[in-house]
Hints:
Structural class: alpha+beta
Helix content: 10-25%
CATH class: Alpha Beta
Low-confidence stretches: none
CATH superfamily: Hotdog Thioesterase
Amino acid sequence: MSDLYTYERFTPGAVLGDWEEPLDANLLAVWDRLFGAQAQDAPARQAGLAVALMMRAYLNIVAPRPPGNIHARQELAVRNLPLAGEVVRSRVRCLDKEMRRDRRYLQLEVSGKGAGGRALYTGKMNLIWAA
Length: 131
């Protein structure tokens, strides 16, 4: 088990790690059970899957986390949709950190790429860090 991710461990500009997630039949079956498999909403389903992939990368890379963090804001730019069967490679990095009114603010970025380095998404998360 690695050390707890405390505020002091974050350095603006530093890569925290990479995460690979295959969009295999098992993951897509779970997604279908949750949201249905209607062909008419395929782009919306795949964009939602991009959000899930971003969060899974964050949760797996930035771990363990102290209890009490607040996920204050999130934005996501989707460039291409993830495709069944490809491996999505996500990179988590610290964009910025600052203290405001005795609170620890972090801005993290998660960027995902598909097969051949095809850009999929870039997400930014603003967090108030507990410790």
